[in-house]
Amino acid sequence: MDTIKAVSSAPGKTILFGEHSVVYSPNVAVATALSSLRIRSVVEASQAGGDRNGGGMIEANLRDVKEGGLGCRLRCCDVLELELWADEEAEGGLVPLGEEKISQIRKLVKEKGGVGEEEDVTPLVPLVALVGGVLGKKEWLERRNVKITVHSKSLPVGSGLGSSAAFCVSLSAALLSVREGGGEGVEAVPGREELEKINTWGYHGESIIHGAPSGIDNTVSTYGGCVKMRRVLHEGGAGSTEKEIFKLEEPIEVLITNTFVPKSTKGLVAGVRRRWEGERGVYEAIFKAMSEISESFLRGGWTLEGMNENVRVAQGLLRTIGVSHPALEMVVETSRVYGVESKLTGAGGGGCAISILHKKVDEETRQKVEKAMGGLAWEGEGEGGRERRTFEVVRTEAGGRGVTVGSW
User: Fold this and answer.
1) What is the pLDDT of residues 204-215, one digit of tens each?
2) Which whole-number Å values give the CA distances from 215 to 25, 159, 265, 282, 291, in the listed order?
3) Which architecture does CATH list for 248-398?
4) Stated pTM of the model
């Protein structure tokens, strides 16, 4: 059997408008793909000798998860014994893995994966689950060597830009392609049915990392463009997230500025809820205004002045509900000098800010803003005591293509 090869890449995401307010039904938020900030997965499968007890190996290398990378080597027969294989087309879809099965995967990686005793193997758990789930039919996996390499240098890990979803989506796409015989030529956007399968497996991997995610991040990473999302409450108090995919007429260029200020998403969300419970009338009016900004964006036809005003007001509302940070305000004030508005993205309290570069903003101004952002820094308490971190700025497109699959 010749070596089967596939390569796939998937983008990160950012929340353009509607952070926090979308938690409170029926308000709308807009998420969008960061088209050039991507995670790339390469999968190779080749024939292995021996029987089921001495056959193939799975070798994984996550190069950019941390300095020096993170990897493991596992026998295919050990992964097969976990019985992870699932049919994504079965009635009812994929069944989420329970805590017991996730613990079994973690134990396998720690005890037989060749990792250090103190190594955090968290990123390897969804990788093993996806390999076993997609390729784990006994007759397919038991006599093969599978090599997986994941690169994530262009998409910052752990910065609130959807890196875990991009990882799960890109890996799922490459694994599915190998299962079907490998990629073909230059990376391209898969067909509709393939995208549905990729999104299903991407969510499967995300649920291992986050428990019960909304599905927004993997949907944006799979399909690209923009996703309109709304929380819907059902009878009995249960809730779900409605998602609608939009394709922009053309991608929007943005600057993403990482302040490196640590944040607690859980704490920020809890703080907003506590204040909402104390002043429901006030906060629901604020959330409604945030939702209207999202709807305004989706209606399109933005002028430079209109876009800037929406971003300015959105940031002001986020500041009002207590989720901004002095480092984020530095970004806002700096870009405003050049006629460009910025806002926090995600939970706030640190992390990243987004500056939307309307098509009428000339290239000279774009470069000035980018340079000015890169000259900013924030001093605060870090793991090693007080430290000063210079902000990192990336220019990218929002609203472009999602996952792509090919060979090399």
Assistant:
1) 999 898 887 878
2) 17, 18, 17, 29, 19
3) 2-Layer Sandwich (3.30)
4) 0.87
